[in-house]
Amino acid sequence: MTTVARTSFGALRGEALDDVVVFRGVPYAASPTGERRWRPAQPVSTWTDVRDATAFGSIPPQDISPERLAKRGLTMSEDCLTLNVWTPAADDTRRPVLVFLHGGGQAQGHGSAPLLDGARLARRGGIVVVTMNFRLGVLGSLYAPDWHGADSTNLTVRDQQYALQWVRDEIGAFGGDPSAVTVAGQSSGAIAISVMLAGGCGLFDRAILQSGGLERVRSTEAAVAVAARLRALMRDDEPGVDEILAAQRGIDPGFVPPQGPFHPCIDGDVIAEHPLVVARTRSMPAIPILAGTTRDEWRIFDAAFDDGVFTEQYVRDRAQALAGDRHDPDAVVDRYRADHGPLRDVASAMVTDYHFTAPTEQFVRAHAERGNAVLRYELQWPSPRAGFGACHDSCLALVFGNLDAAPALAGNDEAARHMSDVVQSLWVDFIRGGEPWVRYDGSGGSTMLLGRESGVTRDHRSEQLAIWEGRYPAYG
């Protein structure tokens, strides 16, 4: 099997894993260090010898213990702009490509996580799978154009778009088809895709949005406030990484759900308007979108709290924060209590709906009503962990097939493996240009329910739509 890929920057030697070749730690941009720290990504220098690409690159600076890094055999550095490619062969075949953007609130995560290993998916679908690292936290999201220049904003999204351009230009060397690129993202990765779609990005041909809290694109005012706090905490003009990470820990994430202090912000350059505004008011690139959420997104986060936390007042305050002034929080709580019972379940269900399901629904509904292909799903497969339900991140184990990497998320028995087979088959069909179930055509349209009994239904939870409407008045 050919393990050498010849890019326009130089040749790379990967590692053969049975019938898949993996290229790890491939640099897609120059190191964003020194004078390049607060600058958009720049081209990587060429090389002459065959470059080894069998080890993952350093992960972006983030709040992670040295012990955990050592256990996983990883290093952490600002020199982190690398990607990883799994391919059936680095040949002249033109295979569909999946580029995956990890989640983590734009403050955590990396493309070399075991859960995101692309070997099984590449092998199953005969596709090329790409994961990547990009700048995170302060280094990727600081809004300080007066300090670092107008092009220093939203560096995380700029990195992601630069990597997607690299894929367009270079993926042919890895047996991929640059004209058949699907970008997928989970959680904050899905938010990034919504931003790119709203901005008219033409660097991908299909999109998959998994569990995106699409409301979390920050206003300019919110970004200015975070930047002011960070500048107060970072006393040096050019702080070291340890000081930057310490400053990140000093930022209050806000009431449940967290306000996402390191998510993308409206900067008038990369992001001119909130994606929910754009989706409702004008056309985005007319590409197919597959999008959905899990049934119980927020349960995994509320599992950290004792039952005593979920008092009537606490749950009412959460309803007020989520539903806004347009809705009576007591009425919201009463409605959810009728469906979910205990206050803990009510509190989690409200965040799942208002923070994940509702904005995803509004974003893709407008796209569908303009005649574009939209496939909607809800993942109902339960975690084996008591109280988690069909929780956030469980989709990752099923899509990538790496159930052994996080068995608490989706399980690792025969039934879980069958569920993973179902999900992978559907996603691969979409990546390869198909429409694996009936299109979603607007409010109450067809939705694929993925669980112990999978199938398409209409009017799924349509009664809830009334309570969602008006939640985002600022977004149209």
Automatic annotation (TrEMBL):
PROSITE patterns, per the entry: CARBOXYLESTERASE_B_1 (PS00122), CARBOXYLESTERASE_B_2 (PS00941)
Protein name: Carboxylic ester hydrolase
Name of a matching Pfam family: COesterase
Record Gene3D superfamilies: alpha/beta hydrolase
InterPro entries in UniProt: AB_hydrolase_fold, AChE-related_enzymes, CarbesteraseB, Carboxylesterase_B_AS, Carboxylesterase_B_CS
Similarity field: Belongs to the type-B carboxylesterase/lipase family.
Organism: Mycolicibacterium gilvum (strain DSM 45189 / LMG 24558 / Spyr1)
UniProt GO molecular function: carboxylic ester hydrolase activity
PANTHER family listed in its UniProt record: ACETYLCHOLINESTERASE, CARBOXYLIC ESTER HYDROLASE
UniProt KW Repeat keyword: no
Record's keyword terms, sorted: Hydrolase
SUPFAM superfamilies documented for this protein: alpha/beta-Hydrolases
EC number(s) on file: 3.1.1.-
